[in-house]
Every structure is written in structure tokens, then in C-alpha cells.
Amino acid sequence: MPRHTPLPSPGRRSGLLGTLAALALPRAWAAPEPEAPRLWPREARVPGGVARLQLGPSAERPRAFADESPLLVTGDAIVWTALVGIPLSAAPGTANVRVQADGEAERRLAYAIAPKRYTEQHLKVSPRTVDLSPEDLARHERERAHQQAVIATFSAPPAGELRMRQPTPGRRSSSFGLRRFFNGQPRNPHSGMDIAAPSGTPVVAPLPATVLDTGDYFFNGHTVWLDHGGGLLSMMCHLSRIDVREGQRLAAGERLGAVGATGRVTGPHLHWTVSLNRASVDPALFLGD
Q1: How many Å apart are CA 88 and CA 110, to the nearest integer?
Q2: Domains in the chain and their CATH numbers?
Q3: Helix, strand, or coil here: 90?
Q4: What pLDDT sits at residue 2?
Q5: pTM given for the model
Q6: pLDDT digits (tens, 9 = 90+) for 267-280
Q7: Host H or E run for residue 58
Q8: I need a surface site. Which of 31, 46, 161, 165 has the fewest CB within 10 A?
Q9: Hey, which of 10-19, 143-152, 176-185 has the most confident mean pLDDT?
Q10: Dihedrals φ, ψ of 46, to 5°?
Q11: Structure confidence at residue 183 as a pLDDT band (50, 70, 90)
């Protein structure tokens, strides 16, 4: 009798076919690894950046502080995250935050700040905005004290995501952190993002917000402060007009004013500052593109 090679069982045939099919597939056809979800703000542990510090699980939202400034804490009972705005003046090295959860002793959480060198910018402006008269200096000191009180605002944390929209269309400069020289004299680093746009271009809220303050300031010109919650604020400067009032609630994308050239400027543009726990941080970290 002729000899017959026994056929593999149906289960073995299926396994062999699957193995052969996998071997035959080119590598490019392999299923891609799933991307980790993007989080906003993006983390950058440098002066002018943002640190994302995991605080662990807790039934209630923990409280966290950088020095005496309360921090924005987001998340849920499974994991809470503190968002720390790092001042432009911060020295590289180890920094700490204080964390207090209900029923637990206060603890310290350390993180490292890496160095970052920002470039220089030299500008020519009206001499009266550099060498201030006694009257202008007194005005500036009053306005600075007022804005320090505004920037210390801490309200309920925002409920939604923190991805912001650009508040006006136009070319975004990489101006944040620039070491600025006005008429050859050094001044504080640039604490915001400049967006070039013609006068009259609408300016909108980058996130849901409450209008915290409006005014006409010596350096900043027509200005609107927005409170996004949890110590996260936006300041819009050099506006040609202001279309909102203090206490008004704005949806993301709702108009608040228009681009202008008021205050100390070299031309029409929007200066946009983002403040987190009283520290000016790079607005680009909050933008999705």
C-alpha cells in the first residue's frame, strides 16, 4: 500500500498558516505602536518652562505650593499632577514643591531645572520709555504694584484641557525669554510671545476665562488680564481697543479686543503673557501646533 503523509490537524494548520503569514509580511506593514497622548502644557524643565510633577493617588485633590504660591493641580483620584511654572529667574539645579494631601503629613517633591540660554534683542524706542521722568516712574511703580496683586489671583482650577488656541492670527516670534536691550540699556527678559498682526486684528480668549483686569498701562498700553483658573492667567497687551469688562466670562475663541500699538512698542503686534503660579512661562508650551 502506498504510504500517505498524515495532514496536520485543523488547529495545527491554522497556527502554521498564521506563522507563515506573519513571516511573509514586510516589516513596514507591522502595526504601528500607539502614540502616547499629548498633554498640555508640554513639559520643559527650564527657566520659563513648566514641570509636570505626579503627586500620586488621593481621594481629594492635593494642595501643592512652590514657595508660597499655590500650584495648579489637575487629574483625578487615580493620579494627580501638579503643573509648576518655573520663573525665568530660576537658577539651574534642584527645586522643590510642598505637597499636602488630606490626612497626610506635608512632604517635599524635588525636581531638576536644566539650564537654558536665551538670545539677545536690541531695540530702539522712544527715549521717554527708557529714561523715565519722575512722573512716569511714579506711574510705573503704581501700575507694577497693581499688576503684582492681579498676578497673585488663584481661583478654582479649570475643568477642561489646557490646550490653548493662538489669540490672534499672525506670525509668532520666538521672543519669549529674550534678553532685551532698549536703546542699549539692559532690561528684564521678554516675558511673553509677540504675534505680528495689523492694527484692528481681533484678539480672542485662548481658553475659557474670566476677565480679571483691564487698563491702560505705561509700558503695556491697553491691556486685558484673563483668569483661566488655578493660577493660570493670560495678559494681552498693546491693544488698540478693549471690548470686554472686568468680571465678564468668555468662552475660548470669544473676542476681547483688537491688536494695536499702544504702550512701549516699535509697531503693531500682540504681546501675550501666560502666567502660572505667578511665573511667566513660554506660551508656546500651551499651543497645540
Answers
A1: 18
A2: 50-113 (2.60.40.1590), 120-286 (2.70.70.10)
A3: coil
A4: 44
A5: 0.82
A6: 899 999 999 999 99
A7: none
A8: 31
A9: 143-152
A10: -135, 165
A11: low
